[in-house]
Amino acid sequence: MINICWFRRDLRLDDNAALYYALKAGRPVLPLFIFDTNILDDLEEKADRRVEFIHSALEAMQLKLREKGSGLEVHTGRPVEVFASLLEKYTIEGVYTNQDYEPYATERDTTVARLLKARGAAFYGYKDQVLLDKSEVLKDDGSPYTVFTPYARRWRSIIDDFYVKSYPVQQYEQHFLQGAGGTIPSLGSIGFRATGKPFPSPQVKQDLLKAYDRQRDYPGIAGTTHLGVHLRFGTISIRALGRKARELNDTFLNELIWRDFYQAILWHFPQVGRGQSFRPEYDLIRWRNNEQEFARWCAGMTGYPLVDAGMRELKETGFMHNRVRMVTASFLAKHLLIDWRRGEAWFAQQLLDYDLAANNGGWQWAAGSGCDAAPYFRIFNPTLQTKRFDKDLVYIRKWVPELDSLTYPAPMVEHEMARKRCLEVYGAALRR
Asked: Residue 397 carries which DSSP code?
């Protein structure tokens, strides 16, 4: 009889909650990963760097497991079908995994847990991708917070050393199933191909974190961590990062609180992950949805250099500076009056660090439709944002080298006209 540790968004062997509890239970533990075809089949781009990142992380885990005499068993398919097959192959006492709060993930886990229960096996889920989860930061009456500031205040009153303490997985490594695992399937065999582009380092730079509050808003300098993809797939521990943040920079800690907040919103209000506005009245907005204008925004050819630089950086690298994400999102929803869901979907396709909760939360914030969102009459002026955050055009000239040439387009919309139009359209919808 064995236990299984099912890896998903936690691709590491150290400080892993589910792995710790699986090993501590004392039975041989089979490490498992499933390339979920329910997800992969929806990916149109077969040179998807996120799949490539996952594949690279699995190979790194496999090397470490081989040193311990064990290995990852990797399958491709629908999880419930994979577990049906595993139940025929092994006598399974329990499946240990870390919780995922996205709507599809909760449905998947419910289905798998039901199958396991029918066959006499247990399903255990643990907190690992957030510091405080959906049930730990609630109002006095037990309801969820929908405004960030009081949420953050309560979050800070709860957090202490216990919540950022590492799980000592190494104490129980002797319980890995010996001789487990096989060859990890190649990217090609699951229908994808490598790009060869490098990934951000998982190393936490202390000097960068110490200066984070002073540098994070300026896209022309290396003032942000680029750790998003590692948090998305769990190749670093959120607890280790939380310890660093508490020690080195309160502003960076605040960003981790925002991350927990959006995960909690997604859990308590799953409709936001299915295309609904958090504030239903914003679904009455009559979007223009001009296809040519959307294409120019995607291509970084709007004539607003800061917007164009961000969109080109995204397309080339899979990353966009957070300040610029806000500007580009506001431009699409408010200057062009194109439904924020279209921008959200484009970012979901392009971002290496794509996370449903954060992406949805950020887009609804920019559009004004989300919880604790920017008011609809707050409309970023890309020109003023440039003067404030990239006044020497360091960032812009990197991504828009033709800035001073005749080939660079004129602004596709005049700011004051767009602002007035946005206020009229939003105002009409909200009055209705």
From this structure: H
